[in-house]
Automatic annotation (TrEMBL):
Keyword vocabulary terms for this entry: Hydrolase, Signal
SUPFAM superfamilies: Sortase
Pfam families, per the entry: Sortase
Active site: H134 (proton donor/acceptor), C201 (acyl-thioester intermediate)
Signal peptide range: 1-30
Name used for this protein in its record: Sortase (Surface protein transpeptidase)
Organism: Arthrobacter pigmenti
Amino acid sequence: MSNCAKDRRLRLAAGAALLFLTLTSCGTPAAEEPGTAGSPPSSSAPSSSAPSAPSPSESAPAADAPPEVALAMDPSAPVSFSIPSLDREAEIIETGLREDNTLEVPPDNEGAPASWYNGSPTPGETGPSVLLGHVNSTADESGVFYNLEALQAGDRITVDREDGSTAIFEVYKSEVYPKNEFPTKAVYFPVDGAELRLITCDGFTAASGEFEDNLVVYAKLVETA
């Protein structure tokens, strides 16, 4: 992996607490601590009976088994994405941080693309790659990330990259967070595998005319082409 990719992740970890996302009148102030799920309880209870002797296969060492390596790709900027279950395709542009440490967001005009936050790994590279998009446009509700809440676990997201390769991700969860409880570390901080985060607005409130929440879709790399 290139030094610039390592430096990018270090900058991301150091500065993520200062990030602020503004998408179509919707903010996501960085939370001090991400929401964390508790460990699942053990399904087995201790037994007072003597343990049975292991079978030969159980006692045989697995020294020859290769260590499991998380699927990942070399760095390459994204150029477009598709979500087959939503019949959605769009280009991806690159955005970064403004001088005040707020996230630069993609334009909100009709047909505007999504953007890749260049402080995160490129899609397919080890770590959480972040794509931003609007839920609506200035004309109607057909924003690039419109209806993103319809995605379900197992749905695929395909990202075409500048080097001609393709990263294929599988959704494993989506979460809605109030903008004042945005889990910055859970979304932006490094992870062991290659993952994708799609971030957009949610929770439109007619009384205020604003989006009160953010929707985050989490996906992991499952295939390359």
